[in-house]
Amino acid sequence: MATEQEVRYWGIRLGWGGKFVEHGRKGKYIAIGWNELRNLEWLANKKKGWGELRDHFTKEYRDTYKGTGIQIGQGSGQVVKFVREMKEGDIVVVPDTARGEALIGKVTGPYEYKDNWADDCSYLQRRNVKWIKEVKRDVLPVKLRTSLGSLLTVFSLDRRKQEIMSLLGPRPEGELPVTVTGDELAKVIISRLFNLDPEKFEHFVTHLLTLVGFEATATQFVSDGGVDIIGTLNPEGLADITLKAQVKRVSGHISNRDILMLRGTLGVDEHGVLITTGGFTKQAQIEAEAEGKKPIALIDGGTLVDLILTHYDELDEEYKELLQLRKREVPLRERFYTIKGR
Fold first, then answer.
1. From CA 62, how far away is CA 73, in angstroms rounded?
2. Both 13 and 162 in a single domain?
3. Confidence of residue 237 (pLDDT cuts 50, 70, 90)
């Protein structure tokens, strides 16, 4: 069984358009074609040197399927992934086009081959799996959904580990979770915000601003760098304060150009704020506070995370589901301190 550090994540297509997904769902297996190669148990033999096995398999694949060097390399590589690299304990994600969802499962058995599996699935190279969860396509994080659009039959999803883990939710009893706090927690929150597409991220920030106290409304989504959110704050009924916000879901730094663009949209009594998951260049910070100009408030990724944590209990459930945060209960007497001897 693979350990936490060894677990790998795979995307598997069960037939073109998910032709054999239902067979795999009911039979609790994943499978690939390449039937002409017949039984490849010898390829899974870890006791033999990989160099010798690779050369032999590449020749056999080339003799069986012909094709260009790229085609041979791509096709044979997928078979090697399924037969040799995949192992028990790995996680697989299978797109189900017909149902508009994805199946997530754990590999529970070694590579197997039979000339006749006594079912209607024509794929003969197989592995047993335990299906864990079915997830609607619309719920899939954007990056994972994009990765599942691969035209390959077998492909790595290791880069989508965090997105897949968030979908699986709490770990089974007996498995210790890896908890993160502080700066590492902030990085995880920012990475999970990137699972939202740009339009949904704007709606998230709009929702967050309403929790702060603004009556905020997202403008019609247009990816043009304009004003994304317009909000009004009326503290104690004393005065209406109009806020125009621009939202940037980026990992880099925002330049002073964006500050100038936002300032150019502001009316006489309007205020501006630029909210990003990244940071701001020094020039942008100087421009935002330039003397004699309308100031622009800046909220970088760290400040955004602090706002989220401050108002986490008030967030809509869909955003809590995305962020997957847990709060620690601190005993009352540990919330206070004094200096000993006074």
1. 9
2. yes
3. low
Taking only the tens place, the pLDDT of each residue in 309-325 is 999 999 998 888 888 88
Q: Two tokens at 264?
A: 């150019």
Give residue 338's pLDDT band: very low, low, confident or very high (50, 70, 90).
confident
Say if residue 264 is in the same domain as residue 316: yes
Identify the domain containing residue 302 by its residue range.
191-323
Q: Where residue 50 falls among pLDDT bands split at 50, 70, 90?
A: confident
Structure tokens at 25: 């769902």
The pLDDT tens digits for 277-297 are: 999 999 999 999 999 999 999
pTM given for the model: 0.54
Here the CATH number for the domain that contains residue 311 is: 3.40.1350.10
pLDDT in tens, 73-85: 899 999 999 999 9
Per-residue 3-state assignment (H helix, E strand, C coil) for the chain: CCCCCCCCEEEECCCCCCCCHHHHHHHCEEEECCHHHCCCHHHHCCCCCHHHHHHHHHHHHHHHHCCCHHHHHHHHHHHHHHHHHCCCCCEEEEEECCCCEEEEEEECCCCEECCCCCCCCCCCEEEEEEEEEEEEHHHCCHHHHHHCCCCCCEEECHHHHHHHHHHHCCCCCCCCCCCCCHHHHHHHHHHHHCCCCHHHHHHHHHHHHHHHCCEEEECCCCCCCCCCEEEEECHHHCCCEEEEEEEECCCCEECHHHHHHHHCCCCCCEEEEEEECCEECHHHHHHHCCCCCCCEEEECHHHHHHHHHHCHHHCCHHHHHHHCCCCCCCCHHHCCCCCCCC
Confidence class of residue 1 from pLDDT cuts 50, 70 and 90? very low
The residues near 305 (Cβ < 8 Å, ≥ 6 apart) are 185, 186, 189, 190
